[in-house]
Write a sequence for this structure.
């Protein structure tokens, strides 16, 4: 996907989240159900309830979010750099341009989530669960993805001129990772299985040890 296309998606998602109606309830621990630019840097949010929250530009860098519940959350440009989200559940969340660089995320769930343009560079992400997720434009460079489950996820895109881009797996450890059924999608959202050779070439990795 072109950088301009990803940027357009981020802008559209930001507007949608910023003007979303507030939830009737608040998340646990005094966290608001909707916020722009809120900061929880280094906070202990172990087990926090972030279900269905709408956040733009929230900062969770260095925070403890182990076992947090964030299913259905909508976040744009949130920063989880160096955070510990091990055991957290982000299933069915819409996370656009979110930063998980150097985060610890053992057994974290993103099943069915949309993570367009997210950054997982150098993340410690063993046993990550991302089945059926939208991972177009995601940066996994240098990440520890051993035993990760990415089956049936959207990993590549093809634009109108036939250009193919895939999630970047450069220098990632994908030993035992499940990439069966990985998809390539067009601009009209039609998706078909991507062949292993294309995924290796456009994902910038031989994907040694992965199950394709």
């Amino acid at each position: 996907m072109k950088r301009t296309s990803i940027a357009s998606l981020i802008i559209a998602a930001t507007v949608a989240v910023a003007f979303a109606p507030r939830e009737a309830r608040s998340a646990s621990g005094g966290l608001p159900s909707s916020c722009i630019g809120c900061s929880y840097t280094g906070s202990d949010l172990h087990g926090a309830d972030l279900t269905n929250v709408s956040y733009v530009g929230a900062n969770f860098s260095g925070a403890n979010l182990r076992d947090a519940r964030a299913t259905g959350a909508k976040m744009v440009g949130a920063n989880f750099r160096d955070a510990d989200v091990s055991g957290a559940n982000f299933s069915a969340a819409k996370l656009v341009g979110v930063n998980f660089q150097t985060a610890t995320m053992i057994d974290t769930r993103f099943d069915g989530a949309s993570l367009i343009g997210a950054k997982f560079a150098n993340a410690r992400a063993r046993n990550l669960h991302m089945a059926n997720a939208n991972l177009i434009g995601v940066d996994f460079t240098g990440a520890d993805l051993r035993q990760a489950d990415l089956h049936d996820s959207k990993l590549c895109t093809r634009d109108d001129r036939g250009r193919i881009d895939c999630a970047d797996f450069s220098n990632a450890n994908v030993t035992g990772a499940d990439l069966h059924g990985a998809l390539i999608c067009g601009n009209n959202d039609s998706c078909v299985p991507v062949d292993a050779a294309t995924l290796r070439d456009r994902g910038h990795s031989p994907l040694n040890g992965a199950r394709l």
User: Anything to note?
Assistant: The chain has a mean pLDDT of 90. The helical segments are 3-18, 196-202.
